[in-house]
Automatic annotation (TrEMBL):
Matches recorded under InterPro entries: FTHF_cligase-like_sf, LUD_dom, NagB/RpiA_transferase-like
Protein name (database record): Lactate utilization protein C
SUPFAM superfamilies: NagB/RpiA/CoA transferase-like (SSF100950)
Domain LUD residue range list: 93-190
Top-level taxonomic group: Bacteria
A Pfam family recorded for this sequence: LUD_dom
Organism, as annotated: Amycolatopsis heterodermiae
Length: 192
């Protein structure tokens, strides 16, 4: 018997005699709720080099237009809450300058947006291919931390977690944006 066979025999023996009851996993994660989750979220979004606008519902259409800047061809997923000029969905995403979506929620401590691809969010590729992503998030959809986000999300739905514009660094730590997704992320946080 060689060493590999000895190890596997030992593992098999341990499995046969092991108590197969599962130990409970404690889920009492330590959570600290920051005093103002909206301000913390905004600070973290900017730390990730994303643009940020805070506005009211009445100011939202103008804020979106301003965030889109010179973008000519814009994707707007079905169920988006504001009437915008744009294409609701398209097969050839490379031909679009920008996409405007909503988010299921935001995470204050990490500045992360979570899309679960419900109404106003579209399919996953919409938020990954165009060069500009404008994402609208209501203040009441911001949670303090990751444990609260996981608890609030439906694990059966697809999810995309976004922390800043797409970025990577080479071996010399030179940051390059837009390699694996949108080069520009503009988050609009809506009060009311």
């Amino acid at each position: 018997m060689n060493a590999r066979e000895e190890i596997l025999a030992s593992v098999r023996g341990a499995l046969r005699t092991a108590d197969r009851t599962e130990a409970p996993v404690p889920r009492g994660y330590r959570t600290v709720v920051p005093p103002n989750v909206v301000d913390l979220f905004a600070e973290r979004v900017v730390d990730y080099r994303a643009a940020l606008t805070r506005c009211t519902s009445a100011e939202l259409p103008d804020a979106i237009r301003e965030a889109l800047g010179p973008a000519r061809k814009v994707l707007v997923p079905a169920g988006f809450p504001v009437k915008l000029d744009g294409v609701p969905d398209a097969a050839d995403l490379d031909t679009f300058d920008a996409v405007v979506t909503t988010a299921a929620l935001g995470i204050a401590t990490t500045g992360t947006l979570v899309l679960d691809h419900g109404p106003g969010q579209g399919r996953r590729a919409l938020s990954l291919v165009p060069d500009v992503h404008v994402c609208v998030l209501r203040e009441d959809r911001i949670v303090p931390g990751v444990p609260q986000a996981v608890a609030a999300l439906d694990p059966a739905r697809p999810q995309t977690w976004i922390s800043g514009p797409s970025a990577t660094s080479d071996i010399e730590l030179t940051r390059v944006e837009g390699v694996h997704g949108p080069r520009t992320l503009h988050v609009i946080v809506v009060a009311d």
